[in-house]
Every structure is written in C-alpha cells, then in structure tokens.
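Quick one, tokens below. Sequence please?
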C-alpha cells in the first residue's frame, strides 16, 4: 500500500473536510481521493492538520488510549491570572453533550511571542485598545469537542484566537497559512513518536 502523508496549516474559516458548503480543504491542494484528515479543527480554529490514507496512523492518533500530546497556542481575552493557569493545568470541568466533564490535567505556560510566530489570520482578530489579551501554550492529551475554547471560558478567559501548533514533535513551524507539505512515513512516525512496525493488532503506546 502506498501511504501518503500531508501536513498543512489550516487557515481560519476553512472546514476540515473536502466537501460541503463554504471553503474546504479541496481549495488547498489536489490531494489523492483516499486521503482524509486525522481528527479535525473547527472552522474558526487554525493550524496543524494531518492528512493521510494510513489507517494505522489514524487509529494511533485518535484512540484515546494512546494519549498523544497536542499543543495549542491560544490568545485569550484579558490578562490571564496565575489562578486561571493553575485551573487549566488541573483540568477544569466543561460541558460535553449536556453533561459536566472534568478534563484531564494539562500543561500550560505563558507564550507572549506566539502571536508574532503564527501566520497572519484573515480576517484578523478585532483589536480593542481597552481590553488586554494574553497568549498561552496549552498542551492536552485528549480531544473533546471544542475543548480548548470551553476550558479557557470555564476559567474566565474566553478564547479569541486558537491555533494547533504541534502533535508530539510534528509542528507547523515555518508554515504559511494554507501551506501543504508532503512527508514520508518514516518522518511522520518518528516525529509523532510512534513505532513503524505493523503487527496484526495495534499495540498501545508505551
């Protein structure tokens, strides 16, 4: 089987799919028909999206038992407090499908230079001189629906801009918005910290 791997920087406003109303991934390149996104980013989020036709990699990244680290650079409204950062680290409760769910522990730090390292967002975030904002780097090992936005709102600091920067060691450093790069199997598996062996059953990540 000829497996293909593409890493792209999904722009704001683009759907993480190849069909549907509005702008889709089809606008970013001529991809093979059997390639699909591993996971998704909401339309109003941006950043790293991995496309492949490799079912084993899809399983490894999406099965919660493997708990791969995903790092997001997040611009929140207001000067975030030390208490709010601690709450994010400990895992605040959020609402998922109508139920309150406690999120897993996370890693979080202030990241003031993030806004200068990301590509320009179109349209840009509306600037309000009277309202400060803060950039943080938040690393999660789970992926509930709109989790990052719900977490920052739960601690009192709504998300203004959200970009997925990395999955394990695979990043979008140096990417332009909408840029697509092809990787080979060895590169992708090494950066994600996943064994390339292909046994009959999928092993758990050690």
């Amino acid at each position: 089987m000829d497996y293909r791997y593409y890493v792209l920087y999904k722009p704001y406003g683009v759907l993480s799919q190849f069909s549907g109303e509005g702008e889709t991934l089809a606008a970013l390149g001529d991809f093979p028909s059997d390639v699909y996104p591993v996971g998704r980013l909401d339309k109003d989020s941006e950043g790293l999206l991995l496309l492949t036709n490799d079912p084993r990699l899809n399983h490894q990244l999406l099965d919660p038992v493997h708990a791969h680290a995903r790092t997001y650079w997040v611009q929140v409204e207001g000067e975030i407090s030390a208490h709010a950062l601690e709450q994010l680290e400990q895992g605040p409760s959020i609402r998922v499908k109508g139920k309150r769910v406690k999120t897993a522990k996370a890693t979080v730090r202030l990241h003031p230079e993030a806004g200068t390292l990301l590509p320009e967002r179109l349209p840009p975030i509306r600037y309000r001189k009277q309202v400060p904002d803060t950039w943080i780097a938040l690393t999660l090992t789970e992926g509930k629906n709109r989790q990052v936005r719900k977490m920052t709102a739960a601690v009192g600091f709504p998300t203004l801009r959200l970009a997925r920067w990395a999955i394990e060691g695979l990043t979008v450093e140096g990417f332009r918005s909408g840029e697509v790069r092809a990787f080979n199997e060895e590169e992708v598996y090494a950066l994600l910290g996943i064994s390339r062996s292909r046994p009959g059953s999928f092993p758990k990540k050690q």
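The radius of gyration is 17 Å. The CA atoms of residues 189 and 195 lie 7 Å apart.
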